Amino acid sequence: MTTPQRVDADLGWALGRVTRAHLHTAQEVVSGLPGGPRGYQVLAAANDGEVSTQLAIARMLGVDRTVMTYLLDELEGAGLVERRPDPADRRARRIVLTAAGRERLCELDRRLREAEERLLAPLEPAERDTLRELLRRLATGTGHDGASACRVAEEISAADGC
């Protein structure tokens, strides 16, 4: 007979607790940005350059195309991104950061990194880097689409009221 596991040794409990803390902190940091954390992810994806079309960014982030349109409308209205025709496919739109968008992204990156460092303070610096790398590998190698990850994050956020 196996001994029941302690709650604080459960992976789901630990991931949920860290996720809720991170979501709360990230919400505070990006509260003035159109779209909040999703808006930040769009800025980061557009800055990265690997995925640059509206549809590609929506797919990568697991955001519905119609929701992405409204989100981009807000970001464009705030002067943070521009939609430009894709030279390879005139029907597609490339999402390009404006100078203000790059500046805002740099500020948010700095503030999010500071918040993450506070969250990860119980770990040694090398452990923080290892954790980030392991989580990145898990997140990109799970075989789950981005929409599922978004749904999970929303469910966790909604359950946070308990």
UniProtKB/TrEMBL annotation:
PROSITE patterns named in the record: HTH_MARR_2
Domain (HTH marR-type) ranges: 8-140
GO biological process: response to stress
Originating organism: Pseudonocardia halophobica
Any matching Pfam family: MarR_2
Protein name per Swiss-Prot or TrEMBL: HTH marR-type domain-containing protein
GO molecular function, one term: DNA-binding transcription factor activity
Lineage, broadest ranks: Bacteria, Bacillati, Actinomycetota, Actinomycetes, Pseudonocardiales
Gene3D superfamilies in UniProt: Winged helix-like DNA-binding domain superfamily/Winged helix DNA-binding domain
InterPro entries: HTH_MarR-typ, MarR/SlyA-like, WH-like_DNA-bd_sf, WH_DNA-bd_sf
